[in-house]
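Reading a protein record of the kind used here takes little practice once its layout is understood. The reader may check this reading against the record printed directly beneath this paragraph.
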Amino acid sequence: MGGLISPEGALCLSCGKRRGLVSGLPLCPACAGELVRAERQRGTLCPRCKSVLPPGRPCRFCGRDPEGLLRESFAPYRYRGVPRALALTLKFRGDTRAAALLAPAMARSLKAPDYDALVPVPLSAQRLWERDYNQARELAELVGHLAGIPVRDFLVRPKKTARQTDQHSLRGRVQNVAGAFAAAPGADCAGKRILLVDDVRTTGATALSCARVLREAGAEAVDLLTACIAPGLVRGRARPTGKRFRIGKKG
């Protein structure tokens, strides 16, 4: 992961403190150690979607997908601590160094990376213009390089929606993304095994909406890969701080 040191100074990308970085990484020793430990998931996990199962209760995420639109779901991290900080840094600051730190664990979390295509969850044209990047595509490109899987833009988002983090109920999230996605013109999904890629999975409303479109377009199977799984509804969003830092792009 060479070349990840920020020109803004020796600040940890996770905690933001100037306290010495691990060689070659934009993380302090404490945060680097936490990121390694965070990949070791604890608790009883659902074998299908990797959610932490409440004692004696069925998986709530799988219960929201009675049609089986998603075959399996993968994620190396819980949405807390250093992984959460990196996901927020990537999403709201456009700092692609965070993607480079999250992607290797995402690739390792796959049982058998035998997919025909990685498909990032798309942004609306307006949101993409506002941000100038799509965090899901940043992750997909890195995972695709590591796993040897091509990235394909099989989905578009013709409907601009409110931010999911501003929806404070499961019903609100489901309604917010209903009809928000469509198959891209010329998308060849027929018979393909597709891995949908996003940064964080919360209720799964976005992923299920995307999976429905891909399955209706003829995909044989759709799985989901995210960097983090959130334990519940995520309220609000982080405020961008500092300067944006994009690798290989004008900032």
Notes: Confidence is low (pLDDT under 50) at residues 1-8, 233-251. The chain has one domain: 46-229. The longest strand covers residues 193-201. The longest helix spans residues 96-109.
